[in-house]
Amino acid sequence: VTSDIGKAVLTTKVLLGNDEAILLTLAMKDKNIEVVKTVKKVIQTCQVW
Questions:
Q1: C-alpha closest to that of 21 among 44, 2, 48, 40
Q2: Residue 25 carries which DSSP code?
Q3: d(CA 24, CA 31)
Q4: Can you give the pLDDT at residue 43?
Q5: 8, 12, 13, 33: which is deepest, by most CB within 10 A?
Q6: How far apart are CA 49 and CA 36, in angstroms?
Q7: What CA–CA distance (Å, rounded) separates 33 from 14?
Q8: Which residues, 6+ apart, have CB-to-CB distance to 16 below 8 Å?
Q9: Which tens digits make up the pLDDT trace of 14-45?
């Protein structure tokens, strides 16, 4: 079980494609440009594909 830690269980790339960061930001309540940039950085940091 511990060997599975850190492995991606789910991915939204199949559903959202290149617009992933934009779509996730639109789904959030706070839509200012800093949130968009932060979400984009988090997604890029966590990408496994």
A1: 40
A2: H
A3: 10
A4: 74
A5: 13
A6: 21
A7: 25
A8: 23, 24
A9: 555 666 666 676 677 776 788 778 877 877 78
pLDDT score, position 12: 54
Grouping H, G, I as helix, E, B as strand and the rest as coil, residue 9 is coil
- Model's pTM, two decimal places? 0.41
Residue 41 is given by DSSP the state H
The structural domain count of the chain equals 1
Q: Tell me how far apart the terminal alpha carbons of the chain are, to the nearest angstrom.
A: 23
Q: Quick check: 36 and 24 in contact, CB under 8 A? A: no
Give the structural domain span for 40. Answer: 2-46
**Confidence band (pLDDT; 50, 70, 90) for 49?**
low
